[in-house]
Design brief:
mainly alpha; two-stranded antiparallel ribbon; 10 helices; disordered C terminus
Amino acid sequence: PAPPTKRPIRQRILSSLNTPRENIYTLPNVLTFSRLLAAPLIGYLVLHDQHAWAVGLFAYAGITDLIDGYIARTWRLQTVVGTVIDPMADKTLMTILTVCLAIKGGLPVWLAAIILGRDVGLGLAAIYYRWISLPPPKTFTRYWDFSLPSVEVHPTGISKVNTALQLALIGACTAQPLLISSAIVSPEVLSPLMKVMQYLVATTTIWSGASYVYTKDALKFITPSSIPSSPVPSSDPAAASNNRTKEERQHLPSSGKHSSTNGKK
């Protein structure tokens, strides 16, 4: 018998192109991406004491964070990449504003270290899980191709609470100079409230980071069969022939039974 031969390179490349993809160009993803782009601009405004503009853009980020989720759920536009870039946009905004506010003295350094330490740890874990779950071939280009879903992130309950509290604290710290300069709230009233929020956020930040370790459903690996995709027409004659053969085999039992009946007659 002839020794088994490896598949031609062209056939292997064509088979890799059949990896299921999803449509990532949806309105919720566009809104999320705009929030991602707004994050560095808000940080720039905070560093240059443009508090009114910073608060306005921060409000835009918060509103789009609510709208994109509502649109995705209502019109069934959820995507796997959306489960990744949505928390990524939130964490990018949190990271940039945490650093900028700590530089300006609006946020304690110890609290900034806790928030950033948790995010760095989760970020490294996300890079690792994305790589090990990526369908072969594993290349740098395919790693950054988010139309190739490989792992789905499900925020834990305490993580959602922590994100809301962090955003509330960061928003309050961003608006604090504006509130004080406008005499809307006196420093004597605002300072104790900020202290309480800071310790509360420190607690939920540590708790939420640990929740991704002991929660089983926080990460879900995506299999090709779980992604609906339209068949990709193949230009490979051998693949087309195999597809025809499979289709013909599906009709063999019924045609065989019909033939046997005719034979008995």
